[in-house]
Amino acid sequence: MAGRARYAAGKPCWVDLGTGDLAGAEEFYHGLFGWEFEPRGRSHSTAMLRAQPVAGFGPVREAGWVTHMAVDDLEETVKHAVQAGGRLVSGPDQVFDEGREQGWGALLADPAGAMFGVWEERDFPGAAMHHVPGTFCWHELAVRDTEVAAEFYRRVFGWQGRVSGSYTEFDLRRPRETVTGMVEMTDAWPQEIAPHWMVYFAVADCLAAADRVESLGGVIEIPPFALPSGRVTVAADPQGAVFSLIELAS
What we know:
By secondary structure, this protein is an alpha+beta fold. 18% of the residues lie in helices and 48% in strands. Strands 2-3-4-1-5-8-7-6 form an 8-stranded mixed beta sheet, covered by helices on one side.
C-alpha cells in the first residue's frame, strides 16, 4: 500500500476533532476561526477556510483534538509503532468521499498513551493550508518520560531530537525540517493531566482570540503569555477539547 504523500512522511498533515456535540462544536469554531463546514454523512464534517479543508470533525465520547502524521506506507508504520511499544487504537481504515479513495488512516497510542493518527494519501493529502490564522501551525507532545518517547518516534517516523532544557524539537532527516516539539511533564504538572499531543492554531491577535473563546462559551485554561515564538494561550471548547492559540512572532 505504498503511496507518496504531498506532505513529507513523518510530517503533521491533518487534525481532527472528536466531539459529542457536532453542531455545538461547529458553532464554536465558526465563531472563533470563521470556519465553514461541509457535511460528511450524518456525524462527520470538514472545516473549511477560504473554501479549503483545514480540519475534520467526528463523534467520540471524550472530546479532543488529534494530530495526524503523513506516512508512505500505513501498514509498515503501524507495525513499527507496535514493535516499538505503541498500541493500535483503531484502523487501518480506508476512507472514501463521493466514491473516491481519499486514503488510509489509523489511530495509534505511543508508550505513554498519547494518541495520534497516521495517514497514507490517495486523493487527499491533508490540510490545504497551515501556519496562517485559523489553521494549525505547531504540534507538541507532552510526556513524563521524554527518553522513551523520543526513541519511539525515532523508530516510527525517523525523527531526530534536539534537546534544550526540558524541551525537544524533532526534525525530519529528509528533507531537513523541524516538524514537532516535545515538552517534559515535570512534577509541576498535575497528575490528572495525561500525556497528550497539543495542537496549536495560529491567530492574528492572541488576546482578542482568548476573549472570543470565552464569549463563545469556551474556557481559557492558561491565560495568554509570551514565548520567543509568539504570544500563546491554552483554551478548551465548550465540549472540553483542549487546544492552544498562538500569535506568531513576526
